[in-house]
Amino acid sequence: MPNRLAHETSPYLLQHADNPVDWWPWVPEAFAEARRRGVPVLLSVGYSSCHWCHVMAHESFEDEETAAYLNAHFVSVKVDREERPDVDAVYMEAVQAATGHGGWPMTVFLTPDAEPFYFGTYFPPEPRSGIPSFPQVLEGVTTAWTDRREEVAEVAGRIVRDLAERSLSYDAPKPPGPDDTHAALMGLTREFDAVRGGFGGAPKFPPSMTLEFLLRHHARTGSAGALQMVQATCEAMARGGIYDQLGGGFARYAVDATWTVPHFEKMLYDNAQLCRVYAHLWRATGSDLARRIALGTADFLVRELLTAQGGFASALDADSDDGTGRNTEGAYYVWTPEQLRTVLGEEDAAFAARHFGVTEEGTFEKGASVLQLPDTEQLVDADRVASVTWRLLAARGERPRPGRDDKIVAAWNGLAIAALAETGAYFDRPDLVRAATATADLLVRVHLDDHGRLARTSLDGVAGAHAGVLEDYADVAEGFLALASVTGEGVWVDFAGLLLDTVLRHFASGDGTLYDTADDAETLIRRPQDPTDNTAPSGWTAAAGALLSYAAVTGSTRHREAAERALGVVTALGPRVPRFIGWGLAVAEAALDGPREVAVVGPDGDTATHALHQAALLGTAPGAVVAVGAPGSDEVPLLRNRPLFQGRPAAYVCRNFTCDAPTADPKVLAAAVRGAGGDVPLVQ
Fold first, then answer.
1. Can you tell me the distance from the alpha carbon of 207 to that of 543, in angstroms, rounded to the nearest whole number?
2. Are 598 and 627 in contact (CB under 8 A)?
């Protein structure tokens, strides 16, 4: 018989609806039940595409004996971290403080007052490599709860007090100056892997936000070293196994330092950010590789993650049926030489093995290889590469597909809007701009209420019950502003302003600090607050970026000052931990450059207007904002009082309250929005 999770909308929770565990969702009634019974709460947090979450579910939560013990001694609560990032953040902070590491599945034991007292992540069904078994952990917690209740309460109270003391505050914050961003660059240079690209050792995550900072720093200062780190890292990732050489798109991370073997789940937030990074790298350099990867990633998003409602699904699983009825990580993506021969025949299989680095020994498990492009010098037949690629892709399409989490997360869809709008504009792909617009329409129609409040998620066109957090408001505002720059539709600026006013009203404090949850959100053991960027921009730094862009488009001093206050945390953290505040540093580069404000006025559909608009969008000046509209338009404040120039479409470039003379020449405009890093390609 299904448990209480059968009534939830989260695909992750629904995966556990048939467990013999008597699961509860995160609701007050669960904790009331724990109080009534006098038992502790097991909090299990994961997400749909989490490999080890599936493993622990199969080993423990589907096991009748383990479930019976849980049901007798605990109230068990299951949380989708993507639906409730606030709950995840609060308890993950406790896990990391207590154990020195974190991850998912997250396993936390709580008092009925939701105070944590014992922590872990994955626990195996029997002791393994120094990790106690899950049954041992359950028995130990039960004994402690029964025999040493006062000690447990003391530990829980101490942890809660420690968490409460971690709130951030700072006096008279100042945004980062040139010395601060230079110090961050030096820190990144020390951590850069000059041989294999990226930063640090294994595992390696795509450093999307750090790469954006380096691109902007190069554009502002002309730093060759900053650009070299971006180029080396982007090429290594593009040629490695972390990038799907057949279907496009990036896996979540590489388990090694060489980008060879990925953890195969594909996340919307990674691919949206990387699509934008490669598009911006092409904009700065004209790299054919960057163009190919940007478009390949955009096409992956639309082909694999676009839902029937017009939004983008959260993720694809790492696991799929390996053909034997057993779910295996990477089964959908890897190849053996024999499988190549079956699809391609001997001659083309030998060619494909050389081209994609497939060996008899394999680079993964059981003699299988992850496809790569290892030979940078090999001269290949482009038509033959295209032929084998499409044949292998078609054959792969016959394999059992990885599961998809169809949940629409507002923040990640905001990132996708920005990426697809810009990529579509750069490469003359109006279909991508249309996809971005459809997603924006969905967020307004389904996620946004009449009071400017966002729902965090939706499924099948129905908004979820959970309130949006800071990253939702900030990333959606960022997406709307990017879409307005590309389409010239000022309504997206208005919607961005509505969201950012909610940020200032409900998420900000007077000293410039920001909180991840609104002031009227559910009360947890502490109000989550984290300015550091992780796999996506933190709500804090994303809000700083959106506030800065909105101020540039509208001339709002209030939003500019809020952005500068928020950037104070980047001054504190950027020089010390640049890898963990990359988007904050990217926003700081935009603030240092102005950012430049570009108004293009001319008749809609006019060739000259389009040429100026394209030149403006292709400018590399960090964080430059662009508005385009007909003469006399006041839909966007940046366009007001901007006439034609000598009867022709014109562009106006302003920075720091000073405007250049208007120009009707796209080449003059291109020079005005060019960063210090070099020429900007005018056409693709």
1. 20
2. yes
Residues 286 and 372 in one domain: no
Cβ-proximal residues to 338 (8 Å cutoff; 6+ apart), any chain: none
> Residue 591 class from Cβ within 10 Å (0-12 exposed, 13-18 middle, 19+ buried)?
buried
C-alpha distance from residue 271 to each of 288, 420, 674 (Å): 19, 11, 27
Give Cα 413 to chain centroid, integer Å.
9
C-alpha distances out from residue 622 to 403, 411, 557, 652, Å = 38, 22, 20, 17
C-alpha distances out from residue 445 to 438, 450, 546, Å: 10, 10, 21
> 684 falls in which pLDDT band (50, 70, 90)?
very low
Q: Please list the residues that pair with 514 across neighbouring strands.
A: 508
Q: What is the average per-residue pLDDT within 502-528?
A: 92
In this structure, the answer to whether residues 158 and 29 fall within a common structural domain is: yes
Tokens of 4: 């209480």
Together in a domain, 306 and 212: yes
- Return the C-alpha torsion angle 659, 661, 664, 665, nearest 10: -90
Domain hosting residue 355, numbered range: 333-398
Q: For residues 354 and 457, state if they share a domain.
A: no
pTM (2 d.p.) = 0.93
Backbone angles phi, psi at 417, to 5 degrees: -60, -50
Residue whose C-alpha is closest to residue 366's, from 328, 421, 400: 328
Calculate what percentage of the chain has a pLDDT beyond 90. 81
- The residue whose two tokens read 């279907």 is 247
Q: Tell me, yes or no, whether 63 and 110 share the same domain.
A: yes
Residues 552 and 638 in one domain: no
Q: Is 448 helix (H, G, I), strand (E, B) or coil?
A: strand
144 alpha carbon, distance to own chain's centre: 40
Number of compact structural domains in the chain? 4
Same domain, 59 and 117: yes
Q: 489 and 582 share a domain?
A: yes
In contact, 544 and 533? CB cutoff 8 Å: no
- DSSP lists the bridge partners of residue 52 as none
What was the pLDDT predicted at 374? 83
Both tokens of residue 18?
């048939």
The CATH number for 618's domain is 3.40.30
Residue 580 phi, psi (nearest 5)? -110, 15
Q: What's the per-residue H, E or C state across 419-430?
A: HHHHHHHHCCCH
SS3 627: strand
Q: 652 near 665, Cβ under 8 Å?
A: no
CA-based angle 534:537:540, to the nearest 5?
110
* The two structure tokens encoding residue 122: 């994955």
Q: Which of 349, 368, 398 is the last residue of a domain?
A: 398
